[in-house]
Recover the amino acids of this structure.
């Protein structure tokens, strides 16, 4: 699997990285989260061809902190019949909060 690469047409999903530097094995958490959060169905199909269902489920079961959109994570946990503890779910959600006394945004 590590010899396979992310197709250049999916480069837009990984704006923070040079896709040639991403390793399908060691960067699985980032790749799965980015594709499931931002990808189109074609990108999800690529994900399913390159990772087993169990590998994808493991990423969803152990979500990285602050990288998931709430509706997206809820969708995929429903699809894969995964129940996350409330605190795990809350920590995984990407949130922008606006402070009432300042006109700036910050990550929670």
């Amino acid at each position: 699997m590590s010899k396979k690469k992310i197709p250049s047409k999916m480069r837009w999903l990984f704006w923070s990285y040079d896709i040639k530097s991403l390793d399908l094995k060691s960067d699985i958490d980032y790749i799965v989260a980015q594709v499931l959060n931002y990808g189109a169905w074609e990108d999800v199909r690529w994900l399913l061809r390159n990772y087993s269902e169990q590998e994808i489920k493991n990423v969803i079961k152990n979500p990285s902190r602050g990288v998931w959109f709430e509706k997206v994570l809820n969708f995929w946990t429903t699809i894969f019949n995964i129940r996350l503890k409330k605190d795990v779910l809350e920590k995984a959600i990407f949130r922008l909060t606006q402070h009432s006394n300042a006109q700036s945004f910050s990550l929670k």
About this structure: Helices lie at 28-38, 41-50, 53-61, 70-79, 86-92. Residues 54 and 80 are 10 Å apart (CA to CA). The longest strand covers residues 96-98.
